[in-house]
Design a protein that fits this description.
The chain is built from 7 helices and 3 strands. By secondary structure, it is α+β, with helices and mostly antiparallel strands.
């Protein structure tokens, strides 16, 4: 078998090459538009880089290990896939807030921060909080599946402070749009802090 492989490798000729966008560009596309396909593939690439396996389990294991190495308490954090749309996934608001705080110390913070949707302006928040104190001052990643809504990110208050927030609501009994309105009010109130 090894003789066949080495022969095949010698005889290979590149016909064409295609290159992916940079990881930073992919992160922007992933976060801005909540692109689950990209999130899943980035997770699998992380698993491939860390454990030489492109399976979901490898990516999730690598991500958990990364956050643990950064001092994040990963007790009760469950990662089943790379995009968070499985009912087997689980994370606490505290864990998300701790991750967002860690990112403020990262050399990649500006790229990460700019990848998050901006309230009333871009991505999944483009239509929300227009005409409020949050418009143009709140950046957050949105998340939703049946009876789950979440927002996590940063908000610049009227007084100029930057707050980190993480709001996760599970098993709510009102409609999805009603819950969004309630959560928007919380975020606008945060932006309005003097």
């Amino acid at each position: 078998r090894s003789a066949v492989v080495s022969t095949l490798q010698k005889d290979r000729k590149e016909i064409a090459a295609a290159y992916s966008h940079s990881v930073a560009a992919l992160m922007i596309l992933t976060n801005l538009h909540s692109n689950n396909l990209f999130a899943e593939h980035l997770s699998k690439q992380i698993g491939l880089s860390r454990y030489h396996s492109g399976h979901s389990e490898s990516g999730c294991k690598a991500v958990l290990q990364f956050w643990k190495s950064k001092g994040i308490d990963t007790e009760g954090m469950f990662l089943y896939d790379g995009c968070g749309v499985s009912r087997y996934d689980g994370i606490t608001s505290r864990q998300l807030a701790d991750m967002l705080y860690y990112m403020t110390t990262s050399p990649s913070f500006t790229t990460f921060y700019n990848s998050l949707p901006l309230a009333g302006v871009s991505g999944t928040l483009a239509k929300y909080m227009k005409g409020t104190k949050a418009e143009g001052n709140l950046r957050a990643k949105t998340g939703s599946i049946s009876r789950v809504k979440s927002y996590a990110g940063y908000v610049r208050t009227v007084s100029g402070k930057r707050l980190i927030f993480s709001i996760l609501v599970n098993n709510f009994t009102c409609s999805g749009p009603e819950m969004v309105k309630k959560l928007e009010k919380i975020m606008v109130d945060m932006a309005s802090v003097k």
